[in-house]
Amino acid sequence: METSYVLHTQYNLSIPYTPFFDSYNQSIIPLPSSGTPLERKDSTNSISPPEKGNPLGTDEPLIGNRLKYIEDSTVDTRYILVVASASGILAFNNPSTLTYSLLAHLHKMSQFPSQQPVPDLASTAGYLLGHANYPSLFRSADEVPQFFVSYRWWEDEVTTILWAFDAQEIKRVIRYGLFQDEHLPRKVLQTRNAATIDTFLLTLVEPHERALFPSLSHTQKVEEIVRRCRVATPSLVSWGWFPACKDGDLTPLAIAEAIDAESQLHFTRISFEELVRYSLGWPSSRVDWFLQQHTVFYVHLLNYLNAFPEDRGRYVEVEKHLRERSPFAHRALARCLLAVQGISSQADLSSNTPQGFEFFAGPIQRLFRDLPPSLTLILKVLSVLGVRFQRTYVHARAMEWTRPFNVAFSFLEDLLGSTSSMDFARTLTNADERDFSGIVEHGIFDQSLIQRLCIQWELLSLDVWECCTALPDMVGSIQECLQPLLLLRTYHSFMAVLTGLHKYSVSESSACVETDTPTASLAPKPVLPPDLVHFLDPFQNYAAYRQQFENAAGIPFLIPHMREYQQKGEPVLRQLALKLENVVP
Questions:
Q1: DSSP calls for 31-82
Q2: According to the UniProt record, where is the region Disordered (predicted)?
Q3: Based on the number of CB atoms within 10 Å of its own CB, is 107 exposed (0-12), middle (13-18) or buried (19 or more)?
Q4: How many CB atoms lie within 10 A of CB 540?
């Protein structure tokens, strides 16, 4: 029969008599007093703690988190007691040595103030290697603002769209999954007729794949539709950055940047669609995994700083650089520093700990509160924002964790709200006239306004690219506004839309192999109107545009004018100001 020494503690736990104690003067397990000697017991037996008695000869009551009492008369010398304390590791295998040395040590410990906080397992977890679970530092429900609406209208509209005939809308409904029953699309589509399902499936497959599907059953076709409508997500990875002695040559800033990059890597493993659902209150396994990996980081760092306490000062500096970076990594590091200093890691870092995902969830929640109750509209908006999400976070070298996610969609809103291409062009023209008003005051250009307008032009071209990428069925409507913009001489928006279409054309290029050469080449998607593409040619500082502007002045495309000003000086601006007097109100 297995034999061991067992003690009962104040926590009502039976702990084998090979205790491992906290090394910061705060021992977890109280030992029994005189009158209750240790005995060799079977593993099923134990010793109850004493009610009173103190071999140190004082009347001081038992303090539960401090070792104070021991009776060694029956300690089996074949066993060694190991006590970890502030003065190091004490090991005894001789009864008399155990009695006098340990009692003296415990009496010294008893002189510490009794107000010292009782440690929790989180603060000692780093020392219980292989013997304890590590509590999570995060709860997913606490990392987003609470979201309450009286009526979740989008859930009711899902079924209506699934029974309609717009394949793109059905695809977006399945992609975002804004419904409680995850099998709802499958159930609805399985009840629809075969011709409708075939039509939907053909919109989702490439031409060379069409011959593969006629042999599928109705149920298999539905499964294929559902599968293709869902976004493929990257595989999850474990935390891969580790503190190491070899990092001694790195500055605290470099270490903070490396930690932030690792945190961003794990953030990119959460899809935009899943973050939207999470923001609206649905559970997310990928968010849970993301948070779990930051607890893993905490454990790695805790163990490292316990093993190499001389590095603690350096990580105090790392924490300062991490404050404006990943809030999750910063919180884990800060909790770790608190833990190694002997402070409970369960205590809040501050009374206003920020919600880590508020930068994303807050703007998404406002969309669902403020937009008109139309699932068709909001899914189109989300599709455009999904492209922006990729550009802002996935393809970025570094994230801005505190800047709210930009959910503005004025270009798409104007496009969807227009009744014709001319109506849309007039809307863009009116906006440009407002933006350009005041650019010239008493014959002097406002240089700061010019700079803002140039930045706005770049952002408008990106809005066009996002819209085309997210909603290819809207490309035709965007193309149709170009001629009216040129007719209205709104060159600012005209060149921005044309540039955005060009970005989309190149992004959607397809590879092709020339018949007379083995070299592969890229063929841009043909979305640029052939009769307008020459305006994009930057040859001789956009000579084609400048000739057009010279013949029919309008709201200018500023970049070539500013370049000409840098080359030729003030006369260029004076001439431009004269032209604008008759154009901009």
A1: PP-TTS----EETT--BPPPSS--TTS--PPPPTTS------TT--TTS-EE
A2: 32-58
A3: middle
A4: 10
Provide the 3-class DSSP secondary structure of residue 88: strand
Q: Locate the DSSP E strands across 365-484.
A: 440-441, 444-445
442: pLDDT strictly greater than 70: no
Do the Cβ atoms of 281 and 364 come closer than 8 Å?
Answer: no
Joined tokens for residue 302 = 């805790």
In tens, the pLDDT along 112-145 reads: 333 334 334 344 444 455 546 788 899 999 999 9
Q: What is the pLDDT of residues 59-111, one digit of tens each?
A: 443 333 333 333 333 344 333 333 333 333 344 344 443 333 433 443 444 44
Q: Could you tell me the residue ranges of all domains in the chain?
A: 1-119, 153-229, 418-581
What percent of the chain is helix, strand and coil (3-state, nearest 5)?
55, 5, 40
This prediction has a pTM of: 0.76
pLDDT average, residue stretch 262-272: 97
State the CB neighbour count (10 A cutoff) for residue 574. 13
Q: What number of other Cβ atoms are within 10 A of residue 467's Cβ?
A: 26
The kind and range of the H/E element at 493 are: helix 491-507
Residue 78 has what pLDDT?
36
d(CA 577, CA 518): 54
b/e string for 493-522 if b means 16 or more Cβ within 10 A? bbbbbbbbbbbbbeebeeeeeeeeeeeeee
At 164, list the tokens.
């309609």
The string of pLDDT tens digits covering residues 341-384 is 754 434 344 445 779 999 999 999 999 999 999 999 999 999 99
Match 């539960």 to its residue by tokens. Answer: 64
| CATH architecture of the domain formed by 418-581 | Orthogonal Bundle (1.10)
